């Protein structure tokens, strides 16, 4: 039987998501770069957050016996890795200070971690007991 997440872990998860997301956006807002470059980095953030949540959902669904196609599972992983790779390539080629590149990289990763943790907590609170455990208990 799954335990519900503690209030402290829920708070820490939301804090990680918000600090990473807001830190990334504030850095982007203050950056001296063209609008199309800002759009690139903003799109990578949104793409990364969505794909990371999708990976978490796929992994969790499979653990709970909920069918997930291999194709969707692979797409979710490839999308997450592509978002990270696109950020690395963008930062590698950017004419930013090394400290600025570090802020983008770490705030991006913190936001991804926070999104995954918030998704996990949301699902734990909504579901409670996994589907395959409920079926076993009813037998």
Automatic annotation (TrEMBL):
Gene Ontology CC terms, in alphabetical order: plasma membrane
Keyword check for Acetylation: no
Pfam families, sorted: YiaAB
Transmembrane segments: 7-27, 39-59, 71-95, 101-118
A single GO BP: DNA damage response
Keywords tagged on the record: Membrane, Transmembrane, Transmembrane helix
Protein's name according to its UniProt entry: YiaAB two helix domain-containing protein
Organism classification: Bacteria, Pseudomonadati, Bacteroidota, Cytophagia, Cytophagales
């Amino acid at each position: 039987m799954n335990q519900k997440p503690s209030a402290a872990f829920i708070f820490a998860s939301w804090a990680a998501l918000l600090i990473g997301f807001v830190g990334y956006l504030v850095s982007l807002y203050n950056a001296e770069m063209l609008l199309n470059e800002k759009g690139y980095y903003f799109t990578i953030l949104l793409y990364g957050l969505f794909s990371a949540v999708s990976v978490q959902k796929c992994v969790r669904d499979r653990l709970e016996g909920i069918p997930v196609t291999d194709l969707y599972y692979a797409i979710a992983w490839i999308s997450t890795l592509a978002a990270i790779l696109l950020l690395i390539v963008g930062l590698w080629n950017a004419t930013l200070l090394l400290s600025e590149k570090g802020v983008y990289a770490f705030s991006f990763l913190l936001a991804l971690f926070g999104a995954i943790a918030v998704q996990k907590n949301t699902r734990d609170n909504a579901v409670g007991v996994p589907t395959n455990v409920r079926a076993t208990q009813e037998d």
